[in-house]
Amino acid sequence: MDLYEHQARELFAEHGIVVPRAEVTDSPQRAREIARALGGRAVVKAQVKTGGRGKAGGVRLAADPAEAEEAARHILGMDIKGHTVGAVMIAEPCAVEQEFYVSYILDRACGGFVAIASAEGGMDIEEVAATRPEAVARIPVDPAAGVHTATAVRIADAAGLPPQTVDTLVRLWKVLVREDALLVEVNPLVRTAEGRIVALDGKITLDDNARFRQSRWGEEKPASGDAPEERAAAKGLNYVKLDGEVGVIGNGAGLVMSTLDVVAGCGARPANFLDIGGGASARVMADGLSVVLSDPDVKSVLVNVFGGITACDAVADGIVRALDEVRPTKPLVVRLDGNSADRGRALLDARAHPLVEQATTMDGAARRAARLATAAATAG
């Protein structure tokens, strides 16, 4: 379960991590009052459970209370990656001297956690990680040993963070452990002109298996029921939103991860991870396709299924059902192989939907989906 930024900051403050004063509202008039109480100048931030808010215009600096009201009025109701903004946080601004990136994240492959940190935080951290991976330190963390001062010093040294961040690194680990989190991220963690280390933003993902211990978040109502993540959660689907344009659906986490890599190798960016599972029914396939197609960032969809327990004709039946229910406006490329693949292909051929085409190989399907997404983005 993802928390909103203001909820993450609440947890940070409880664990002794410095955060700016702030208050949440869904009223532009109230935003003016909060800004006035904070001293006039304020940062107005959309509260949605996704990244990229700044680049989407969901974060604005207001010079006075009137500007804070206007910024809140503009941001409320915005659509950011399929999330409708239902609330804004009004926060006091900081005089930032340097920005850093810090996170702890569960690494299922190694059976532990990884600390990821960089001395170059901010909105362009993804670009830094992609173009200069040496600027991002990745330090394995033994969950049994945890992060104490010595480990935090090692993380800070590896990432080039100043010594003042060590205490915050230790406290962030305590947030992860005590709150049953799978991810704790601060971007940016900043050093102010006064030398304070302050968490300006926060992202926390809690372990759904620990909801019974985190009941205070259980009554949280989503800001909108239409975001892909919310639709997927309601349908029990294994879905992760990514920052791309090619929707990806497959059966089995390994196959889906391989598909993401192949799509990226074709010059496109995956828009999501969606694993329909090893024994998915036609209903699950239809639900998965409806979720992916609901993402406004998606320009094309790649369905890559290798039939084993999951029969390809059931997958094809699900696609046909979804075509009738969702009525897509985005192209689909389908690659079926394995159990009942011939029957599945025949079902799609018989449906003959103008937006659906088939490919015989994963590489060929990924290339075609990437081209369709690029063409749609260029035309749009």
Number of helices: 12
Supply the CATH architecture of the largest domain.
Answer: 3-Layer(aba) Sandwich
Note the overall shape.
globular
CATH level-four homologous superfamily name of the largest domain: Succinyl-CoA synthetase domains
Question: What oligomeric state do the depicted chains represent?
Answer: single chain
Q: Count all strands and give the number.
A: 18
Number of domains: 3
- Beta-strand residue percentage: 25-35%
**First-to-last CA distance:** 33 Å
Question: Percent of residues in helical segments?
Answer: 25-40%
Rg calc: 22 Å
Decide which structural class fits the backbone. Answer: alpha+beta
- Order of secondary-structure elements: HEHEEHEEEEEHEHHEEEHEEHEHEHEHEH
Largest sheet: 6 strands, antiparallel
Contiguous uncertain segments of 5+ residues? 219-224
Structural write-up:
The protein has helices spanning 5-14, 28-37, 65-75, 125-131, 149-159, 166-178, 228-235, 253-265, 282-293, 312-326, 341-351, 362-379; strands spanning 22-25, 42-46, 59-62, 79-80, 83-84, 88-91, 96-107, 112-118, 136-141, 181-192, 197-199, 203-206, 238-241, 246-250, 272-275, 300-307, 332-338, 356-358. It starts with a helix and ends with a helix. The chain is globular and about 70 Å long. Helix 2 (28-37) runs antiparallel to helix 3 (65-75) and helix 10 packs parallel to helix 11. It has 12 helices and 18 strands. The chain has 3 domains: 21-91, ATP-grasp fold, A domain (Dna Ligase, domain 1, 2-Layer Sandwich); 96-217, D-amino Acid Aminotransferase, Chain A, domain 1; 228-379, Rossmann fold (3-Layer(aba) Sandwich), CATH 3.40.50. With 380 residues, it is α+β, with helices and mostly antiparallel strands. Strand 7 and strand 8 form a beta hairpin. Strands 7, 8, 9, 10, 11 and 12 form a 6-stranded antiparallel beta sheet that branches. A 4-stranded antiparallel beta sheet has the order 1-6-2-3, with helices on one face. Strands 14-16-17-18 form a 4-stranded parallel beta sheet, with helices on both faces.
